[in-house]
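Here is the promised in-class demo. Please do not try to memorize the tokens; focus on the logic of going from shape to residues.
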């Protein structure tokens, strides 16, 4: 069901108050608890009256924990943020009934009250209750808004539509060359929507003038007739159809669930053709449908039990507008502990509104880059489009050399409760970002992923601008405001360090692509031999009495080169041995020559000479079997004593 607090935020913020309370009101009750006057007012969205009633009951010592939480919510809904934050804190400290959605309201209350300095402390204390994605969104947007986002702001020409009424006007939608919108201006004077003190919402059409203003307003007659709510249209040119929400009715009258609630359904009306209900549930309202012609997905907002906060944004797959799947939540990158509504897609960017606690005020408009089935970090559009009030329902299209868009807001200076504002701008709203995403893999076994690796991005001033940890599947994702050059680094204990610099061209090529990072696992590259740690190589053999490196030997020494690239702090000793055949002094000279040849090759191939502390030939000093002087042995046994080892001298301190 839809939470009570969601319904009585200003209509712009949450269209629930105006879209799902019936004329008869809604009555709830607590299990095994007699309903009080405060409860009645609270669940009928009379929050100021609920505050007075609950405070009276509190003075008499009769409030339950749930009712005290209701009182906190009522304070919040009446903008008494200081009392709301105090009440939420008391509930949290004693025996919390609060979920993430209440945490969101508590953080909003703290930011708007004299207790604002306590917001960060409280956020730190409950951060584990939020998703990793939400906390990344918080950090990104806080940095963006606090560190000079104005430098990246576009110049908007924002104007109030002259056709706005004293009632509620919101949810603009392009309809060919016209504009559809929702309005509370009264049409049927016999039926009034009491909570909003205006008519039931209806959908109007209008002509768009070159200035962006609208004219020739009239009821949009292409939709099925009803005496109750019709709102938030979305037009599909491919289907020549309008998707919108309607009050649940039966035989022309409002229909209610067992709790007396009238919810909203999503309808599809083909212009000049058939009408159809697509999504209907007597106990769940659906909001702000948006049909994407490119993907055939139908997006909408709803408050299902599996959500992350209040209303979340979902989609269903369709076949030409016919629903073909269960609702799919867009996930924690988009949906938060707050309420998300009003999805809209323009040029591979996903726009929506949210009242998540780290915004500028009530509802703010965000943009997220679409990355296949994934979404980038939602970016606050900044303090021209957004205000400390409610801003939502953005749409935009190309117009001449720039762009024309509309959104709704209840900011001061409007003509009614919520007004529609137009804007013109040269570029697409939303800060340009850089995204790195992919997998951290084992460089020596690409089928193995590396979880818990630290992946960081650095600017050219040597400042770390973002960092994350790869998940259990080795996946990582980082997004930062646009830079012309960055360095990416990945590290993990006992793994190699990865570092790579990207310039402008490389960054442009990288966008919308995966970038996998390979890390070498130290223990994969070394082994224990003869009581010491050595670089892992297959056995190789010099030709008889020769110090020349064969191609086979060079191939194996390439493993040492790769090891030192992965672990450049390692210090090496080259050891070469031979069998007992031949004189002792000859064997010493031969093995020393072979060790020196190995060192020369390694240095020529990029290993610093200072990293090779010793190059030693041991001759026949360390025979591994019984093949000593004078003992007959098979060739294979003699070969066991012909060996070269590259010892890692500082193995025991390399990772200290």
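The designed amino acids, position by position:
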């Amino acid at each position: 069901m839809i939470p009570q607090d969601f319904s009585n935020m200003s209509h712009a913020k949450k269209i629930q108050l105006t879209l799902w309370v019936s004329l008869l009101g809604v009555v709830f009750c607590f299990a095994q608890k007699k309903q009080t006057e405060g409860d009645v007012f609270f669940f009928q969205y009379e929050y100021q009256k609920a505050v007075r009633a609950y405070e009276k009951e509190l003075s008499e010592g009769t409030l339950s924990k749930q009712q005290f939480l209701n009182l906190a919510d009522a304070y919040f809904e009446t903008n008494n943020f200081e009392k709301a934050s105090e009440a939420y804190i008391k509930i949290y400290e004693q025996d919390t009934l609060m979920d993430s959605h209440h945490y969101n309201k508590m953080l909003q209350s703290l930011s708007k009250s004299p207790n604002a300095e306590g917001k960060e402390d409280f956020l730190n204390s409950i951060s584990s209750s939020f998703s990793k994605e939400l906390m990344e969104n918080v950090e990104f947007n806080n940095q963006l808004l606090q560190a000079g986002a104005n430098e990246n702001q576009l110049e908007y020409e924002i104007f109030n539509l002259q056709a706005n009424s004293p009632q509620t006007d919101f949810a603009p939608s392009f309809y060919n060359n016209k504009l559809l919108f929702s309005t509370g201006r009264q049409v049927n004077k016999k039926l009034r929507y009491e909570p909003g003190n205006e008519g039931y919402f209806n959908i109007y059409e209008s002509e768009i003038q070159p200035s962006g203003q609208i004219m020739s307003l009239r009821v949009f007659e292409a939709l099925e007739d009803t005496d109750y709510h019709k709102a938030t249209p979305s037009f599909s040119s491919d289907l020549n159809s309008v998707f919108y929400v309607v009050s649940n009715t039966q035989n022309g009258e409002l229909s209610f669930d067992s709790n007396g609630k009238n919810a909203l359904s999503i309808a599809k009306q083909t212009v000049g053709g058939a009408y159809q209900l697509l999504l209907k549930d007597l106990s769940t309202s659906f909001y702000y449908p948006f049909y994407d012609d490119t993907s055939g997905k139908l997006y909408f907002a709803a408050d299902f039990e599996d959500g992350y906060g209040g209303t979340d944004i979902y989609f269903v797959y369709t076949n030409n507008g016919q629903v073909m799947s269960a609702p799919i939540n867009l996930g924690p990158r988009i949906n938060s502990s707050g309420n998300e509504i009003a999805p809209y897609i323009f040029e591979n960017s996903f726009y929506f509104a949210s009242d998540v606690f780290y915004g500028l005020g009530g509802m703010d408009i965000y943009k997220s880059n679409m990355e296949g089935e994934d979404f980038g970090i939602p970016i606050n559009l900044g303090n021209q489009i957004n205000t400390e009030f409610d801003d939502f329902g953005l749409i935009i299209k190309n117009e001449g050399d720039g762009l024309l868009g509309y959104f709704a807001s209840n900011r001061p200076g409007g003509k009614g409760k919520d007004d529609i504002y137009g804007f013109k701008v040269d570029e697409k709203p939303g800060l340009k970002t850089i995204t790195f995403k992919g997998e951290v893999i084992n460089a020596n076994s690409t089928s193995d992923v590396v979880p818990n690796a630290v992946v960081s991005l650095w600017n050219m001033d040597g400042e770390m601008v973002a960092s994350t940890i790869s998940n259990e599947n080795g996946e990582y994702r980082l997004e930062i405001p646009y830079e012309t050059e960055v360095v990416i680094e990945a590290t993990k204990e006992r793994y190699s360090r990865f570092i790579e610099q990207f310039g402008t061209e490389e960054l442009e090529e990288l966008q919308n692509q995966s970038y996998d990072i390979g890390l070498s696992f130290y223990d994969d590259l070394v082994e224990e031999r003869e009581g010491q740690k050595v670089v892992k190589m297959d056995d190789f053999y010099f030709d008889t009495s020769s110090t020349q490196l064969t191609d086979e030997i060079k191939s194996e020494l390439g493993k040492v080169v790769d090891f030192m690239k992965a672990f450049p702090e390692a210090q090496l000793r080259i050891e070469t041995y031979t069998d007992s055949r031949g004189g002792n002094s000859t064997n010493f000279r031969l093995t020393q020559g072979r060790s020196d040849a190995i060192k020369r090759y390694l240095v020529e191939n990029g290993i610093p000479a200072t990293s090779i502390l010793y190059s030693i030939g041991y001759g026949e000093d360390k025979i591994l079997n019984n093949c000593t002087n004078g003992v007959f042995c098979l060739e294979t046994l003699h070969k066991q004593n012909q060996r070269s080892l590259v010892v890692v001298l500082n193995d025991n301190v390399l990772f200290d």
